[in-house]
Specification:
2 copies of one chain form a homodimer. Chain A is about 50% helix and about 5% strand. The first copy, chain A, has about 450 residues and is α+β, with helices and mostly antiparallel strands. The two termini of chain A are about 40 Å apart. Chain A folds into 2 domains: about 300 residues, 2-methylcitrate dehydratase PrpD; about 120 residues, 2-methylcitrate dehydratase PrpD (60s Ribosomal Protein L30, Chain: A), CATH 3.30.1330. In chain A, the strands form 2 sheets. A 4-stranded mixed sheet of chain A has the order 4-3-5-6, with helices on one face. Chain A has a two-stranded antiparallel ribbon with strand order 1-2. The longest helix of chain A is centred in the N-terminal third of the chain and has 28 residues. In chain A, a hairpin with a 4-residue loop joins strand 5 and strand 6. Chain A is globular. At the A-B interface, helix 3, helix 4, helix 8, helix 9 and helix 10 of A face helix 3, helix 4, helix 8, helix 9 and helix 10 of B.
Chain lengths: ~450, ~450
Amino acid sequence: MTMSAPQVADRVDSPSLTEAIVQFVVDTPSEALPESARHMARLSLLDWIAVAVAGSDEPVSKIVRNMAMDDGGTPAATIFGEQARLPARAAAMVNGTASHALDYDDTNFVYLGHPSVAVIPAALAVAEKTGATVSDFIEAALIGMEVTSRIGAWLGQLHYEAGFHQTATSGTFGSTMAVARLLGLDRERAQHALGLATTRASGLKSQFGTMGKPFHAGMAAANAVEAATLASAGFVSNPQGLTCSQGFADTHGGQSTGHADVLQGLGTTYKLESVLHKFHACCHGTHAPIEALAKARASRDLDATDIDDVKITVHPRWLGVCNIPSPATGLEAKFSFRLTAAMALTGADTGALTTFDDASCTDTALLAVRDRVSVQTDTDLSDTAAQVHVRDRAGETIFAEHDLLTPMPRAERETRVRAKAAALLGNEVADSVWDAIGESAKPAGHWFTTLRH
Amino acid sequence: MTMSAPQVADRVDSPSLTEAIVQFVVDTPSEALPESARHMARLSLLDWIAVAVAGSDEPVSKIVRNMAMDDGGTPAATIFGEQARLPARAAAMVNGTASHALDYDDTNFVYLGHPSVAVIPAALAVAEKTGATVSDFIEAALIGMEVTSRIGAWLGQLHYEAGFHQTATSGTFGSTMAVARLLGLDRERAQHALGLATTRASGLKSQFGTMGKPFHAGMAAANAVEAATLASAGFVSNPQGLTCSQGFADTHGGQSTGHADVLQGLGTTYKLESVLHKFHACCHGTHAPIEALAKARASRDLDATDIDDVKITVHPRWLGVCNIPSPATGLEAKFSFRLTAAMALTGADTGALTTFDDASCTDTALLAVRDRVSVQTDTDLSDTAAQVHVRDRAGETIFAEHDLLTPMPRAERETRVRAKAAALLGNEVADSVWDAIGESAKPAGHWFTTLRH
């Protein structure tokens, strides 16, 4: 299935990262895109729709949506949260923001960013505007998320540590390429789009903890529609803006050389396949212990009333993040190792937002387990890993561990993403949306009708 | 006239640059704004309108305008180049781009940027949308250009040398403050607007020489409308995003301390008053010699046919920029010391775009003078200065010199800006627009009707 992919990985003396990326975007034939990557993109799409629907009532989503609706314009693309269609740029901004509002979307540790929330809203808005099929849209989104991950990995840890939010910056570049693919830009036009994106991209981590963070996803998506649309109309930029002297990498703490690594396997292997979906509607730090406890519970068909003592071991960096021992509110519950452990051991649906309500903090059955949980640390553990020891009343101890980076088999991932979508959308709607995503020849976005009845 | 200005300049222990700026923006009463600064703002507005009209047919202006018109939306603000009104964000982008398309707009060397092209389109679009008066709009624009210049001066040369285009970056901050003033935001909301602007602002000098440069002005103007509009609706940002750790200054090569200097005199003296308007439609490097030659010509009522020899002395940095000895096209003519000197000595209107046509390169009267001009360099000269020696056929030599940074008396500046507007718009329209700008109680933008008949 990879026979027709452009062999850019072989060009070790490649003169330009931009040229290699654009060649991949423009010239990769549909047949060369592996089914495993398409499947991952479809799962990320289902996940994205579910978190965007759930996030569309958040205050930041409403504020951005109201501005866009006040501006109005040619109805070209669907938005979440209102029965309205807006111009593609506006819809990309609204949907990007809504989908990152809960911070419940997917993550790629390859570049420390959230690929779907920038790329999917940009690609979907333009796909709806141009009448592209589901299949064409999925391909563009897949390619855009791949470019985001690869450029993000090249800009790297230094870029992130310098203060930039990769979801916004690399997200702009990858989503610009997704839109370029959908608009059918040639190599030259696609390079001008990318060059323009380098002078438009922005987003600072110093806005984390504010509405700025989810808005970054909307900015990236809107920037992408704008850059590719302008380039398609003849806009001339410096097409080497990513890598040139005082270009984006140079001015934003990234590396400006050494792109051979990040082009390795471009067109044949997909960094998209290392995307992680979030399966619990609480702080990422609690996810590894929840997974380990679920394994422990399943291994012995353990009943909550049989539990005598629970020890959770995590990397010490998490103690300052999510170790509220006796949370009092739903928000605090999301940052409590002990309470989320009790939820996991009693079989609560930690994928549902409603599980984390104020009442959960005073639920006697949960508190009975919570009060048997203690947290300890081990600097030898990765910060994506946890170990748990669960002792039952008979004195027997079950050990389990989990690392979020452990690859998940395709079937299991599908089951779990669909279960998350069901928790957020309801079983019936989640199933209908998943079926709609599979209807390749239909117009992209046709699943919105499913969401509306 | 300064009695009511907030005395932020006295707060040498000011805890926050942002707080001081926002206090100036929100709390400065109309009466505290000096007439000299208002006059400068009115001149910059006339200049801005003239260059925006002239620039609205440039390819970049059309490309951006077509995108905005394709998106459409609620008609709130007028655009140049088409009989159409668009949402304020869109109009700000279209008009910002058009006004910077010819690079013929004003400059403030205090921060190496072009203040009007970012601030005026943002303020004007929102003033039209909200029905603000000319007077309220001029105040907001004045305040926005002042903030742009001061934050720009604080970010400083290092920010510019790191690769950032101050017109785009500091321009976003000042225009956000102009819109905040027009929307009547309180201090808290205005700070959130500025915080949001810090994570939205972008613009790289590596796009100079492409359509990216004029588009930067449109980006800044649109960013400003967006940031202040979202903040007015309750958007929560990190309001210290300009100065905080990993905030804008920290991540963009700017200084993050030492803001006392830049607050000196805030509310009492206006850096806006050091704005330079461009009076010649050619490379900035040719402006000082043109001015000096005009003085030489006027001092003796010199006829072109009397000229025997002309020596121009400039800083050597200009030799690689605008010393095409025998230009062949209108564009090359703009980069020719010798031909522009001939234009100045024959009384051509170097303020008019049409003067720099292909025919000017073969005009026998011009060539007769051009061929008597030579260029020499002196490293002791400032790069904004020139000296000229003009020898007549009787053997007498006239010496004249000019430095662009020499302050220009108010009356002379008004005469010259109005002459430039007349060269670009025609005498009658230029006069009508200037009169319209003076009608303080009318709705902002009412001059567009004058431009349309």
